Amino acid sequence: MSTMSQRRLRIAEMIARRGEVSIGEIIESVGVSAMTVHRDLAKLEDVGLIERRHGRVSALATTQQEAAASLRIEQRKAAKRAIARLVAQEVSPGSSVIFDDSTSGLWVLRAMADVLPLSVITHSQRIAQEASARSGVQLFVAGGAYLPWADSFVGPTTAKILSGLRANYAVMSSSGILRGSCYHPIEELAQLKRVMLRSADTSILVVDHTKFTRQAGHAFAALTEFDLVVTDSATPAAAIAAMRDSGVHVRVAGAGTGSGG
């Protein structure tokens, strides 16, 4: 990861953790010129991570959701559980699965409690911790530069490890979906998702209804690149119809029942 990318990630993490900070505090913390910090903030603002106003910088709601993994796990639990149950039905014992660092992926892993044996490949420390505590699971962790707010590893080392592996399935989520493309606010994480797509025989996108019409910076795949998209019943009917019209295989989970459609 470049020095510039590391600095921007550090700034994004600081803002997300504190909610709001002054530009002066950021300059003092990262130790670069005011001009450099303003350029970094402009980039973070362009991708929808922060908002600048009167010398202060605030984290937007989507930023805080991305930055606080422990809080994201608790969001929309019913929908994520229902989606996860449908995904678990797609995977047979003895399979290998690549998971990204999304909380939706964590719910899928939990739904696979009876899918054993199972090989898990991930760059997410949280997913790795849960997988390592389960008997019948073989775990491969793609290490690299640790990103605390995402609780995952990123960077060229992580990408190299993932690109050298092959799995039956890749399970990942997206921060936003707009006009048939999937987005993530952090470029390095978007790049890892592209690598995961290329490293799996079957790719599964898991997204709840809040992700539709939300753009989040960096496009990493078209919906048509996925073999299956699983969402919940609160997703707008027009969005589901548009995906199916474009040839995307979609399954819809009822938030209360986990049924597919």
UniProtKB/TrEMBL annotation:
HTH deoR-type domain ranges (all copies): 4-59
Alphabetic keyword roster: DNA-binding, Repressor, Transcription, Transcription regulation
Signal peptide positions (record): none
InterPro entries from the UniProt entry: ArsR-like_HTH, Carb_Metab_HTH_regulators, DeoR-like_C, DeoR_HTH, NagB/RpiA_transferase-like, Tscrpt_reg_HTH_DeoR_CS, WH-like_DNA-bd_sf, WH_DNA-bd_sf
Organism, as annotated: Xylanimonas allomyrinae
Pfam family, one: HTH_DeoR
CDD domains in UniProt: HTH_ARSR
Superkingdom: Bacteria
Stated role: Repressor of the lactose catabolism operon. Galactose-6-phosphate is the inducer.
Alphabetized SMART domains for the sequence: DeoRC (SM01134), HTH_DEOR (SM00420)
GO molecular function: DNA binding; DNA-binding transcription factor activity
The name this protein goes by in its record: Lactose phosphotransferase system repressor
